[in-house]
Description:
Blueprint: E1 11-13, E2 16-20, E3 24-29, E4 35-40, E5 43-44, E6 60-61, E7 72-75, E8 78-81, E9 94-99, E10 102-107, E11 120-129, E12 132-141, E13 147-149, E14 151-153, E15 156-158, E16 165-172, E17 183-184, E18 187-188, E19 201-203, E20 214-216, E21 223-230, E22 233-239, E23 243-247, E24 254-261, E25 280-282, E26 287-297
Amino acid sequence: MHANRTTLIIWKADLMTTISSTDLRVTVSDLGAEMQSLQCRGQDYLWHGDAQWWTGRSPILFPIVGRAPDDRIEIRGQSHPMAQHGFARRLPFTCVDSGADFVTHELRPSEDIESYPYRFNLRVSHRVTGTTLEVAASVINEDDVPMPFSLGFHPAFRWPLPGAQGPHLIELANGGEPKMMRIHDGLIADGLNPSPFQNGTLELDTQLFEKNAALFPEGAGEALRYCARTGPSLDFQFANLPNLALWQPPGAPFVCVEPWHGMAARHGHGARIEDRPNIVELAPKATARFAWFVTITP
């Protein structure tokens, strides 16, 4: 991580908070605790949410990642409606703490969350240090019973990157060639597909996304780089996020680099939340933490 030489300013307007370091400027909305912009030395690296392609920018996925069969999940024998990627991204969070270089938002149960009958506290923090952004989520089970959930991040980055030339690449730090899964009717299809990586490197092509997202249930590792042959690079690290997805609406000017803990329900399987792949079963009064970091080299 880079040392923070000087922190700059913070301002709030229209339920937005902007945090800064000497190199980064990040704006976060109270709605969904969603990052709205990521600038490094005046250049924008985050997708800007043009509705022609996708209005999202960097949503938080909770308490499920992906779809549920018929958009319903089963909890304690009861069926509940649950939209794709859960409800957190659609609800206002409360800003509970902030400073020049960080902001923390919180979501707790309310009358708007009848579909998830647990007492929880979801805290999302954004922090900048030099050219590094940290996005962390803590899930606290304030209930007296185990709490099943998934947690994911869905940030979208410009493709092509500003000032970049040549093909864009995803380079896995572990040099792996993880097997790929696909989505069928919004759910995980059975079986694994050959890896599109060769010696840890994937040259991005829109054809990869003609059948929706490319999912890697394991083996992608805890670090990767998004870059071009020449130009800027984005170096990622992941903590407690073993699943990876890459997604682009074919032809859109962005690519999503999505670290997850959990995935969509499997096609043809039931709706029980406990049966979803890689679900977290959080003990009563326990806390689970998830985080991703990106360091930008302009």
